[in-house]
Amino acid sequence: xxxxxxxxxxxxxxxxxxxxxxxxxxxxxxxxxxxxxxxxxxxxxxxxxxxxxxxxxxxxxxxxxxxxxxxxxxxxxxxxxxxxxxxxxxxxxxxxxxxxxxxxxxxxxxxxxxxxxxxxxxxxxxxxxxxxxxxxxxxxxxxxxxxxxxxxxxxxxxxxxxxxxxxxxxxxxxxxxxxxxxxxxxxxxxxxxxxxxxxxxxxxxxxxxxxxxxxxxxxxxxxxxxxxxxxxxxxxxxxxxxxxxxxxxxxxxxxxxxxxxxxxxxxx
Length: 268
What we know:
The chain is an alpha/beta fold. Helices cover 31% and strands 16% of the residues.
């Protein structure tokens, strides 16, 4: 099956570590100095990496960052052995966010040992990456994190494929006060066609799944993004609304993390 070539940016590398869990350890080590700690919230059949910083017990809103699709494919026909992102801007974006309660969520089958990954169907980093059961799992985790932080509202931020997850979550819930997507293929079928890749059978396409516009939505897109071209985002926004913010010199990976604090300020 032809596969999407979405994936990692380059900010967080493995730092010279090796082994199946090295990237997991690297992510946690980078986040811990900024007050993040791991949470274990299981929802069969998925085990997501969950990192959270809750330095404001009085915060009303929990901000959740959702990882992209992960490791790049070596070719359109060869999936990565491990979908864990070798480098990604998403955790850096979460760290840069000044909000009091912030969480980072990995994607299914990422950050697992080789043994655990054998129990995670590779379809969940390919054609079923946006399936209903994936969205169910995120809903379960989000509910648990809201309960822990005693927050009442959500701000969902999703990068690349994580933006699709965030959008589908927002469409299901009534507690999302803001949705932010970054370089996200929100018109999935249009995106797969434009990239010459196979349809994601079993996944939900936000552009056809929504039933009403999402309130307070911002969709960031890069003018030099060859993986998720701006017109894919524009097609979704034309149907369901939202503020499209085009960064002319940005690519799929550059320079979201480097300028994220500034972009958040501009978004307010």
